[in-house]
C-alpha cells in the first residue's frame, strides 16, 4: 500500500476533566473515502479540528503528507479543505461575492480567480443563487456554498464534518452525489456523520468512535460480520428439511434457528468466510440438494449500537 | 485599477461596510449635520455684526462627533463580529494570517472614514465663501482630526479581539491613568534640578516625530488585535515587541538628540505599558516552527519568543535602558527610585500570576484585577494613615510596590531608599527565575526544532 496521506498517532485532547479524544491512532491513504462515525460528543469534531490545525492536541501526533500539524500548520493547511458542521455567513454579501472573497483569500488572482470561482459554482450548482444574500440561503444551499468554499483551493484531502446534518432528503441526496463525484475524481475524503447508511454506500473504510476512543476500524461489512462471532445463515434446499435438521444437530458450532418454507435458518458460531465455505462444502458432500446458502447481515445501525453497548460495558478491546 | 493588489479583507470589508446601516446612518447624519451648520452659517453671516464662532463651533462639533466618536466606535466590532459569527477559522485556513485580516479591517474602516471626509469637503469650501475662514488652519485641524480618528480606530480594532468588554474598558482607563500619573512622577522628580522638560510648541521635528509615533502606535494596536485572534503557530510577540522597540528608539533618539529632555522617554515609557503588560501575560507556546523562524536573531531571539519568559526579559531590558537614558540626560539619582517603583508595580501582578497557576488561565484579566485590588488596598492604607499615624508607612511603601507610588505623592521621592526598594525587586526576580527554569529548558528544546 502507498504511504498514508494522514497518520494519526496516540492523539489525546481533554477539555477540563473530560477526555474528548483518548489516545486514538489511524491512517488515511490517498484516494480513500473514510467515514468517521460516532454519537454526539464522541470526539469526532475535536479530532477533525486538530487534523485541520484549528486545535492543538494535548499529546500525540498528526501528520498530513509527512508534515506535522502542530509544528508546521501552514504546510498542512495548504493540503487540507475543511467543511465544518456550522458555517459562518456574512452580512450584506451575496453568494458570488462570498466565493470571490474566498478565492482571493486563497491567493487566486485575475482570470484564474474568475475561472476557479465559476468552476466551483458550476460543480456545486450555485450559479442560479449567485445574487442571493448568503444569510438568506436554505440549509441545503448553505451546505453547498460551504462545500464550494472548501473546494476553491482544490485540496488533496477534504474533511467534511456532518455534511448532511439537518438537510431534507433532496438536499441530502445532492450532497451525497457531490461527495460521490469528488470520490470518483480521486480526492481523499474524511467524512463524519450520524447517518450510517449513507456513509456505508460511500466509504472504503470506517472509523467508529465512542467516548473519545476508536472502537472499530474497517469496512461496514467488517462491523456487521465479525470473524469469531456467530452469524445466521439461510439455507434453501430441494425436498424436506428434516434430514438436514438432524445432520445439523450432530455438527459442532451449528444450531437450528428456524424452519422455513424450502429451507431453514441456522446459527453458525464463526462468521468467517473460511468457516462458512467449509460448512457449505460438507452439506453438499452429504448430498443435500442445496440451491441457496446466504449469510444474513445485520443492519449497520444495529451493529453500531451493539458495538457501542459492548464498548460501554468494556467488552471491546 | 487591478483590485488583486488589495488585501482581500479590504475588499470584503468595503463591500460589507458600505452597505451597513451604521455607515449609512453616519454618512447621512453627517450630511444632515453639515446642511444644518451651513444654514446656521448663512443666518450668522447675514445678521448684523456677523459672528461666525457659534456656527464654526457647531461645524467642528458635528464633524468631531462623527469622525472621532461614531466612526471609531464601529471599529470595536471589527474582530468581535468575526468571532461571534464563527468565521475566523475558515479565514485561517486560507492564505490569510491574523495580521492580514486585522490590518485589512482597519484599512477598510480608514477608507470609509476618508470617504466621509471627502463628502464634507464641499461644505468646507462653502464655509470659505460665507465668511473669513482660515482655510489653511482649518485644513490643518482636519488633518489632525483624521490622524486622531485613524488612531482611535486602530485602538478599537486592537481591543475588539478581546472577549471581555470590561477588560477593554479597563485597558483604556489604565492607559489614560498612566498618561496622567507617569509624566507627573518624572516631571516632579526632575523639577527639582533645573525646571524639568518642556513639551513646548510643536515645530517640524516634533510634528514628524509625532506622526511617526502615532503611526507606530496604530500598527501596534492593529498588531495587538491580530495577536488576539491568531492561531498559536503565528508569532505575534516578535512584531509587537519590534514595534515597541522602534517606538522607544524614535522617542529616545528625539529626547537625546533634538529635545535634550526626558519628555520623549517618559512618553515612550507610558506607551510601552500596554506592550509590557501584554508581554508579561503571554502564554507559552510549544510549536517548534515558531522558534525555528527566530534562529537568525541569534541571542536576541530570547527577547522575541512568544510567552512570558521572553516577555519578562524584554520588559526588563527595555525599561532599564530607558531609565538609564533618563539618568544620563538628567543626572538625578531619584530617577532610579522612581524606576524601581514602576518596575516593581509592573512585576507585582506578574509574579502573583506565576505563583498561582490558576491566575494564569486568564492572565490579562488576573493582571488587571490584581492591579486594581492593589490600588484599592493602598488607597485604604493611605486613608488609615491619614487618621491614625502609622509609623511604618514609609517602610511599607518600599515593600508594597503600589504603596510606594502613594508615598511618593504624599511625602517625597527622597523619603524612599533605592536599596530598600531592591528587596521586593530581588524577591520577585528570584521567584521569576525559579518559575522560568522549566519553560527556558522547553524553549531551548523547541528552538532546536523539538529535537535532541
Structure description:
- The complex is a heterodimer of chains A (317) and B (452).
- Chain A is of the alpha/beta class and 317 residues long.
- Chain A folds into two domains: 6-218, 3-Layer(aba) Sandwich (Rossmann fold); 231-295, Alpha-Beta Plaits.
- Helix content of chain A is 36%, strand content 28%.
- Chain A contains eleven helices and 14 strands.
- In chain A, helix 3 (95-105) packs across helix 4 (110-123).
- In chain B, helix 10 runs antiparallel to helix 11 (263-281).
- Chain B has helices at 8-19, 21-46, 53-75, 78-84, 88-92, 98-130, 135-159, 165-191, 204-229, 237-259, 263-281, 288-292, 308-330, 334-355, 363-387, 393-399, 401-410, 418-447.
- Mean pLDDT of chain B is 83; it is low at 190-200.
- Chain B folds into two domains: 1-161, no CATH class; 164-452, no CATH class.
- Chain B has 452 residues and is mainly α.
- Chain B contains 18 helices and no strands.
- At the A-B interface, helix 2, strand 6 and helix 3 of A face helix 1 and helix 5 of B.
How would you spell out the order of helices and strands of chain B? Answer: HHHHHHHHHHHHHHHHHH
> Could you state the order of secondary-structure elements of chain A as H and E?
EEEHEEHEHHHEHEHEEHEHEEHEH
Q: Which structural class should the secondary elements of chain B be placed in?
A: mainly alpha
Count of individual beta strands of chain B: 0
Number of strands of chain A: 14
